[in-house]
Design a protein that fits this description.
The protein is of the alpha+beta class. It has four helices and nine strands. The chain is 28% helix and 33% strand. The radius of gyration is 37 Å and the shape is rod-shaped. The termini are far apart. The chain crosses the membrane at residues 138-161.
C-alpha cells in the first residue's frame, strides 16, 4: 500500500498535465496623455490564448471623462483589435489626474475553466491650458487685412503729399481719382 501511495504521489507531482488559461496582451503598457492636445488614444488588445475570450475594459475613476469604445470585445485566438479612449477634461483646472484601466479576460467556452485573468494599465492625464490655435482662414484674413491696410495707407500718403504735375504727361500719383472721369464716362455709356 505504501508503494502504491508513493507511486501515486510521484505521478501526481511529475505527470505533465495540460492546463489552459485565458490571457491577452495589451500595448502600450501605460498611457500618458497631454490634454487638450491629445483627445483620443488607442490600445491594441491581442488574444494570446488558444480559445476565444471576452475582454472587458473599465476605468477605476473618471468614467464620465474617459470613454472606452468598445468596452467589451470578443476575440478569437491570435486576433487583435484597437480600443479607442476618448478623453474630455474640459472645465477642469490644470494638473495631473491618475487612474487605472482594468482589462479583464474571460473564456467564452462554458466548459473551460472559468477563472478570469486581468491586469491594470496606469493612465495619466496631464491637463494644461488650452490655447487658441491658428487656422488657415485666420492667417489668410490677417495677412489680407494687413496688406489692404498698407495699400490704403500708401494711397493716403500719396494723396496728402501730392506732387505738382509736370507739363509733359505727368498724370499725378492719385491713381484712383485720376482715372475717375474715364470710369464715369464708361459707366454712363453702359447705363444707356
Amino acid at each position: 500500500m505504501r508503494i502504491l501511495f508513493r507511486i501515486l504521489i510521484f505521478l501526481g507531482l511529475f505527470w505533465p498535465l495540460g492546463s489552459l488559461a485565458v490571457g491577452v496582451s495589451v500595448s502600450p503598457s501605460s498611457l500618458d496623455v497631454l490634454f487638450p492636445d491629445i483627445r483620443e488614444s488607442y490600445l491594441t488588445v491581442t488574444n494570446i490564448s488558444a480559445e476565444p475570450v471576452m475582454v472587458q475594459i473599465e476605468l477605476d475613476h473618471f468614467q464620465e471623462n474617459i470613454k472606452t469604445e468598445p468596452s467589451e470585445v470578443k476575440l478569437l485566438p491570435e486576433e487583435a483589435t484597437k480600443i479607442k479612449l476618448r478623453i474630455d477634461f474640459n472645465g477642469w483646472p490644470t494638473g495631473v489626474e491618475n487612474t487605472y484601466l482594468s482589462v479583464v479576460t474571460r473564456a467564452l467556452n462554458k466548459k473551460s475553466f472559468n477563472a478570469a485573468s486581468g491586469f491594470k494599465i496606469p493612465v495619466t492625464v496631464n491637463i494644461t491650458k488650452s490655447y487658441w490655435r491658428w487656422s488657415g482662414a485666420a492667417v489668410f484674413l490677417i495677412v489680407f487685412g494687413g496688406l489692404l491696410i498698407i495699400a490704403l495707407m500708401i494711397q493716403v500718403i500719396f494723396s496728402l503729399f501730392k506732387l505738382r504735375r509736370k507739363k509733359k504727361g505727368w498724370l499725378g500719383t492719385n491713381f484712383i481719382f485720376y482715372h475717375r472721369p474715364f470710369w464715369l464716362k464708361l459707366w454712363h455709356k453702359l447705363k444707356k
